Fold each of these.
Amino acid sequence: MHYLVTVIVLCLLLPVLLSSKKTYQEGDRKIIFEFSKGLKVTMLICLLFFSLLTVALSVVSIVEKDKAMIIGVIIFGIFAIVNALLCITLNNKEFVFENDIFSYKSMFGKKSSFSVKDVKEAIYKPTDCTKLVLNNGKKVKLDQQMSNYDKLREILENNNIPYKDKHGNEVPKGW
């Protein structure tokens, strides 16, 4: 039963993760920020590894009737679940800039959009992301691992959006 569930989940995730999208071409005003295909494949391989390890440990614990192995099954099962959530996040999360409108798709596929004029400031965290703070107080996170992340700087500078570090200090243009 565990094998069947693992195979079904992987068969459903693989085509979705490996589908390609047009991300950017010179002259286009549409820029898609998304996670790279290599990162998606790496996380899918990790999901496969942890899922198979969980199944193998559960089979061994049933055959050997070893209750101590159940702890390993639980631990690797949790790793597999967390990894599956990361795969969903990597596949679904998307940020699109087109005609001065940002469109954002969250981890679970919920879409929202806002204008460049709605962005109050950008907060740069050098370790992981840039957060766009909107006029209504909402924050939208753009991860550094996303493709075309360097284009965000151009968009912010062209629209005179204040850019601050995580401590609130102004970052000079050309950062």
Note: Residues 22-26 have pLDDT under 50 and may be disordered.
Amino acid sequence: MGCWNYTCGMSNLHIAGGTPVYTFVLEQNTKPDLYYAHSGLYTPCLVSFNSTYNDYGGGEDCTGDAIPYILDSIAVNSIDEFFDKVHEGTLKFNSNQIYHSMMRKDIVDDMLQWYKTDYRNISFNDCVSDVRDMLSELIKRHESDIYFSCYMDIPHIKNNRAAVMLESQANHIGFSRIVDVFSIVDDAIKSSDKDSVYKLEALIIDFLRGIFVNAILDKSRKQWTPGSSVGSQSYSGDILLAIGESIKKVVDKENSDFDFE
């Protein structure tokens, strides 16, 4: 079989060979009562890793602190084996079929430069700048509380935007535990090895990126799904721009008719 372009899970733009992407692992959801939600069909692991699309449905030059945890959870030996088994349809986690979604890095990075959550008007960069302080506060709380739990203590950290966003996900049932960041941080803090705690900063930032990506998909009424139109080598930029122009006309008219700000 020849090569093909993939489809960006955020923008629907084509992903051609050599394009940098964020790769998210998805579990197929077998609970029909959740199909109404944007994570109803596929449950995402919100900790992504970096890849370069390889023209054949997978990634190469993969990096990211989540990779060892992903490989361990789904019991594969390498990221190449992960992509091969996803392509073959033979990879499962807790009896759920595993897929992946790729999102163009240029699209995601640009969106995260300006997007702010409805809740408390927080940006991704706000959170990134607060991660280290949050970890320091968690270490202090562990030192003074024998009953410390990352799940329970993060909500009590004040004036920290990273903690606010992590708190919003702590007990959410709509996301995969393939990489359970809260348990990983909890174990590191309870080991009393401060260096190991601060080494988790990059993993937490990757998790926060996923939280923001998820919020954008929710806001734009998009489902978490594997890449569509696999097999096509077409480029989708022109038609998406045309659709965008039509959307702009409709939204401008609605705003005018209803005096939306």
Note: Residues 117-208 form one domain.
Amino acid sequence: MEITEYITFINAPTRQIKAYVEIYLIPGEPPLIIYGDKIHNFDLWEELKYDRADPLGGISANTFSLTLLDPEHLFNPGNATSPYKEYLIPGVKIIPYLGIMGAQEVHYEKMGVYFATDWCRQSDFPTVKIPCKDRLYYEGQLELPETRVTTNITLKNLFIKVFTLAGIPATDYNINLVPDSTIKFAWLPKGTLLSTLQLLVEASGANVYIDRQNVYRVENSNAATTTNFVLTEQDQVISYQNPVTFDSIYSGVSMDVYTPVVTEVKEILSLKEVILSVGVTKFLNYTFTEFPIAKVDSIQIYGVPDARVQLCSAGNRQISLEIYSVAGGIADISIMGSILQGNPQTITQIAPEALALIGEKVFEIKNHLIQDPAFAASYRNTLLLYNSQPDRSVFTSIRGNPKIVLNSKVNIRELQQRVDAHDLLVSRIKTYFDGGLSMDIEGVKI
């Protein structure tokens, strides 16, 4: 269906909304396809980030909740005779689709890829409710190791490094950072994929979310360059709110810009009177006395002449060793190396108009990966642009358009409230289907 035909039918006074879901219930077999007459309702919650006390927000998994009509109890985990009983478990992949009937065919939009967390039989109605989350909910819990210090790496390549550590292939992420930044000395602590990505989000100002094609997207809030759809009261807008709020805005941003330097070589770990067995002795995850470590320079073993290091694995904070000795004995181990000192410089930028309205209210960012002064200046400007205006947030309820996606721009105009036409950068979408379609959209006026 051509886009002009799609717009005509999705905005028509009367329209036919269609839906189906694919449920990948039995491994190795085609999915079950459940059409609209068996779907009681479903809703989706998509967002660029969840709200926190600070304007950066937190990385969030999108959610999908599906309620099926199930008079036969096929999807009831408590039904011993259900042919699907053993497959009604967490992690089942479910893909929802929404469509609009055109002149001759239905045009469907894929609404994301989700994975069941529960199968909840409703006691008062022949339905089953299936709450789901996207892949970020599951993969975000993966444990990642700490990394060695890497020199002269861009933020984009640091994101790639994190995805690689998590085993996520290049086909499963899309990174669009403008501007990018070069980090002279980069290091990552041990943590989950989610906590590591959050560290990079705070260093870059980017959003990280899963799009409807099941791909990680890493992009700035200003990544949308074209306006996709026009929304008016004549075709889509049901309600519109653009509140003026002062309690959530800031009049300034304070940001530390780091200039790490490498110290001279010195002792960074000392192990006294350790026992070396005959053969191999392992020392696992010993923490350096100072960190982050730029480089391990040497490892000296005293007291056992034939002892030698046969394996060394060092991150920026911890080290593991395997030491081989024929005779064994009691030894002292001295590890020499150099550390990084951050040397942060604090730069504060003020928005005069916000300062006049609310006084001094400054948001602080301290992140060791912010090392490029030019990038830091651009970052501060963007933060102030989006967080110093009391009328920046827009909430609108519309009849629904499945092609509207996160971090896209829509244009709102021709409202009876005499609101000036403006673009809206979409940051949150709630979609509800129950035979009909509706959407609640939240975003930033630009």
Note: The longest strand covers residues 329-341.
